[in-house]
Amino acid sequence: MRIVLLGPPGAGKGSLASLYDARLHIAHLSTGEIFRREMARRSLLGRRVQRYVTSGRLVPDRLVVEVMTARLDSRTLRKGFVLDGFPRTQGQADGCDRVLRRQGTPLDGAVYLRCPPLLLIRRLSGRRVCARCGANYNVRTMRPKRAGRCDRCDGSLTVRKDDQPETISRRLAVDRKAAAPLLAYYRRKRLLFQVDGAGSLETVYGRTLKLFRRNGWLTSARRS
Ligand code: AMP
């Protein structure tokens, strides 16, 4: 299966993609995670993207496409992948298509998670992230066993810099502007599928699984 997961910040893309990885063994590639990891390492890439990521603005297309082209070329992704947070603009979608066409591995679909704005704000403001391993929690819906500590590695749980209230509003506004042309792009290519992103993670996971099965995408993931 080769899909892109689309949806505003807080729609649940990262949590769902982690579940596909754990349960269906489909590689999860998240631009946001790549950037945060590089920022933590203080690498050249991390330093180049830092001011965009911490302020909730989009990293320029050229840089994002360059980073993702290198990763999409990797042999480990030949079995399929879920792209999370990429592409975010039409320019990135073009870049993504170019690489996949060159490899002969076109997308099966672009899955858009629909979510009401109030729910997005609620989810983002309750999100906590492990400073050590990056695992996600939510103070309301996905609490860790011990308050403030990661279940997996006992790292401390923190609020992402870009989950501060004013940055959340900016990220949602940035996304609203970028999303419409991107959805139109995938609709034109007859690749767009919409799923209701409200509800618990398991509920939304179940909805997407039905979509994958209906389209035969999981069979092709096992075959390849
Ligand atoms: P995310 O974890 O997907 O919410 O991304 C966190 C931040 O990383 C975003 O607010 C952007 O600053 C940056 N970012 C992630 N993916 C992209 C992308 N495809 N294009 C531009 N910026 C991105």
What does this entry look like structurally?
This protein has 224 residues and is an alpha/beta fold. It has 9 helices and 8 strands. It has a 5-stranded parallel beta sheet. Strands 6-5-7 form a 3-stranded antiparallel beta sheet. It is globular. The mean pLDDT is 91. Residues 9, 31-32, 35, 52-53, 56-59, 64, 85-86, 88, 92, 162, 171 line the site of adenosine monophosphate.
Strand order of the largest sheet: 2-3-1-4-8
Low-confidence stretches: none
Helices, by number, come to: 9
Oligomeric state of the chains in view: single chain
E-strand count: 8
**Which small-molecule species are bound to the chains here?**
adenosine monophosphate
Helix content: 40-55%
Q: How far is it from the N-terminal to the C-terminal residue, by CA?
A: 9 Å
Mean pLDDT: 91
Note the main sheet. 5 strands, parallel
Secondary-structure element order, as H and E? Answer: EHEHHHEHEHEEEHEHH
Strand content: 5-15%
| Structural class by secondary-structure content | alpha/beta
CA gyration radius, whole angstroms: 17 Å
Shape category: globular
In short:
The chain is an alpha/beta fold and 224 residues long.
Which descriptors apply to this entry?
single chain, 224 residues, alpha/beta, five-stranded parallel β-sheet, three-stranded antiparallel β-sheet, 15% strand, binds adenosine monophosphate
